[in-house]
Structures are given as structure tokens and as C-alpha cells.
Amino acid sequence: MTLQQLHYYCAVAKELNISKAAEKLHISPQALSAQIGKLEDEYHVQLFERMPRLAFTFAGEQMMKYACEMLEREKNISGCMADIKGNEGCKVIIGTTYSLGKMLLPKILPAYLKMYPKYQIELAVDKNVVIEQLLLDGDIDVAICPSAAFNPGIVTELIAKDRAHVVVPQKTMVRLFQNRYQEMAAKFQKKIDMEYFKDEPFIMPPANTLLRNIAEEYFCHHHFSPTILFELADLGIRLALICRDMGLTVSFKAWTFNNMNTYSDQDGGLAYFFPMDFPDNQNENRYGVVIGHRRNSYLNVGVRNFIALVKETLKE
Description:
By secondary structure, the protein is α/β, with parallel strands linked by helices.
């Protein structure tokens, strides 16, 4: 048995499909099947049922458990030895969600690569649940995600906390309040009056998301029924559209990684963040951004430096 065979086995076990696993490994399905066959011959067991579709045998389930542990240990040893050797060309695989990636990575990666030009960077951008699974599987080293009930196998640290906000473009404020728009914006920072915006359309996040649920709770509390123009998951696009006076939206300000009460797009469009006010401060810190890694995994110097830079950037 070799580490490469275990790597091949784990790839097949994750996909339960020889062709898909072979494609990811950049080898032929025939060569991959042969390596699995060698493992089965060595231990005199069948690891997979081949028909009607690929499935674990009991031996295969046990092999998966120990093979992943061995590969994790080998990865930890390699990372530790590389750090001791002073390997400046270490590899860092970063995972994040679409909205956070769009807002955060342009702030972090240029500075990171300027500080550590020899580091190899790979990115995985997907839904929160997919990023969590990639982290658990060891396919990424570190993840930046919305706070959630993460698997106990993941260690997380809160790097930003926030309240939900109603986001109103400056053009809407000027249209509604004319030369008093700045005065009203300052007033709404303390307590927004949604009655002023009853005729304004909203571009909302999808139903059954955390932000949408908080927004609907807030609207219900204030007896406010928004006119929804359409739904859109991508915060960056929502902000870009409202800066063109297409309506209002809702957001957690932490998604912009901006401590100001306004948002400016690249073309000079401006929008205001007005905190949703709930009774008894129920909106306080209902959302956060976390950075996480797999429990008991060795963090190489590249990952440690990335985590430190993210935390330092968000303090500014």
C-alpha cells in the first residue's frame, strides 16, 4: 500500500464514481480502477460494490475512515517539515462564499501576495454548505464564511460581527428629502422611519435565507409591506443596482467590510446603511463572519499568515 493509492481510494470514495474521480485526478478510469484493485488484492477484501452503482462495502467504509486519517497525518507532517525547512513556496487553498469573496478577497489577496510573493494560492468560491464540506474533506485549508452552526470538526473564530441594515441609495434620499437628505440620513442612523419608503421598490435576497428572515421579521414588526422588484442572492450586484437608483435592499454591513455608514461603488454611486431597530436590541450582533480551519489539522505558515492578515485588515 502506498500513500498515492490511499489518495486515489479517497478520491473514489468521495465521488462514488470512477470516471469523475479519475477526471479530478487527471488519470484514466482504467488506471484508477487498477489501483483500487491492487488495494483490494493486498488486503483480500472488496472495497466497493460495482453494481448497480458504485457503493461502499463494510470494508470500504473502514478503509475510508483510516485512509483519510493517514492522509491527514501525512499532510500535517509535510506542512510541518516545510515550515521547519523554511519553504517560502508553500501552498494555501482558501474557500469563501460568493458575496464575501467579492467584497473581501480584493482587499486581502493583493496585500497578501505582495508580502509573500512565493506563496501558491488556490481559491474555492461556492455556497456556505459546500465550503464547509470542502473544509471537512481537507480540500481547502482555510475558509471565510458567514457565521453558522458549523460542524464540530471545524474550528472557527469570529472576525466581524454586525447588525442587519436597510440600504438606501443617496439618489433616493435626495429625491425624497431634497436639501435635507443629509440631515435625514443622520436621523435614520439612530432610527429609520420606513413609512418614508413605502412606495420604494426593494431588491431582496432570496427567501428562507438568514438575512431575508431577519428583514421580514423587521418589516412585520413595523407593519411594513415592501414592494419587491425581484430577488437576487449576490450582494455585490444588489448594491450596484441600488446605487443606480433601482430601489432599496437589505444587507449586513459586515459583507462590505466597511466600518463606514455608507457604501460607494467603483463608479461613484453612494448608498446609506441604516440599522434595523428591533425591540430590546434583538438586532445586535445577529450576524457574523468567521474564519475557520479543520480541527487538529496542521496550519502551515502560509495559512497562519493569511489568517493574521485577514484579522488585521478587519480591525482597520
